[in-house]
Amino acid sequence: MIRQVVRLRTFLSRVVNWCLGIIGYALVRTTTTSHHVALRRIEHLGRTYAYENVVILDAYAPWAVDDEFQSIWALIERNTLVDILRGYELYQVVRESADLPGDILEVGVWRGASAAILAAAARRWMPEARIWLCDTFTGVVKAGEHDSHYTGGEHADTTVGMVESLLGRMGVTKAQILVGVFPDETGAEIANQQIALCHIDVDVYQSAADIVAWLAPRMPCGGILVFDDYGVSSCKGITRLVDELRESGTWRYFYNVNKHAILIKRSSPSLS
Ligand SMILES: C[S@@+](CC[C@H](N)C(=O)[O-])C[C@H]1O[C@@H](n2cnc3c(N)ncnc32)[C@H](O)[C@@H]1O
Questions:
Q1: What CATH code is carried by the domain that includes residue 133?
Q2: In the structure, which protein residues have their CB atom closer than 6 angstroms to any atom of ligand 1?
Q3: Quick one: average pLDDT of 253-257?
């Protein structure tokens, strides 16, 4: 009897949420620490992608009391496509990379905000590292069959000057901008550098795959890749690539439900 009542309640909440979803609302029960509504399953090129609206109540929010991060965020938030959860994770991941040998690389800079977070964090925790910032400045490249939304040329609404001016306002002096498709056109400029940490925010499968292939031999054990847009429904190519890399056994995989995937290079490939 109790099971039937629970099933009926679940069914009714799905129906209500389906209706509310049409106008952009959802019913959320506030007595639990998290609640899931509106499961969607999408098949794309032989893989199943599941999506739910997850509301996390009473979330631990260290970014809210981190004054230094808040002052950085206030300067950059209007220049970025990432939210504060991902912004704070980028900031913290630099701190976690402090004992790794090598530089910081970002591919997919757009207007420079995530780059500015990385550079500001590096000034504090990785003062020896150089920051390499790579973008075409003419938008997304290499969109292809694995990608669900992007066709190429998106996010071209930026300039090198915009990035330089943001970095200048933040007092960042150690970052260097490389203009062109990475690694095809600019990889040779840093071919001898070791890379401890890379933020990959390029939206499509092949672009990200080429970056990882270039990076893998240049990263130390424990080297960190942060992928933006993991699991985002308009970026199925990125989700697919990260899942394939995970299956390769070369990387440890972490997904923290914030549209980032983090891969950490293993000391030796896993057999499982
Ligand atoms: C979503 S935007 C980056 C957003 C940025 N990280 C932020 O703070 O909001 C994606 C960028 O990736 C760049 N891009 C995509 N593929 C690239 C590649 N292979 N080499 C260089 N830039 C690339 C595009 O030009 C675009 O500016």
A1: 3.40.50.150
A2: 80-82, 107-110, 113-114, 134-136, 139-141, 155, 181-182, 201-203, 207
A3: 95
Distance 204 CA to ligand 1 centre (A): 10
Do residue 45 and residue 66 come from a single domain?
A: no
Same domain membership, residue 66 and residue 50: no
Is pTM, for the whole model, over 0.90?
no
Same domain membership, residue 111 and residue 246: yes
Same domain, 173 and 103: yes
**Nearest-angstrom CA–CA distance, 21 and 156:** 32
In this structure, the answer to whether residues 49 and 68 fall within a common structural domain is no
Burial bucket for residue 150 (CB in 10 Å: 0-12, 13-18, 19+): buried
Q: What is the mean pLDDT of residues 234-249?
A: 96
Task: Tell me what pLDDT residue 155 has.
Answer: 97
**Ligand 1 center–CA 134 separation, angstroms:** 8
Contact 215, 105 (CB under 8 A): yes
For 47-72, write each residue's pLDDT tens digit: 999 998 888 889 999 999 999 999 99
Residue 104 sits in the same domain as residue 142:
yes
Are 117 and 12 in the same domain? no
* Closest among 211, 195, 50 to 131, alpha carbons compared: 195
Atom of ligand 1 nearest to the CA of 181: 20
Residues 51 and 70 in one domain: no
Tell me the average pLDDT across 238-258.
96
**What is the rounded distance in angstroms from the CA atom of residue 177 to the CA atom of residue 190?**
11
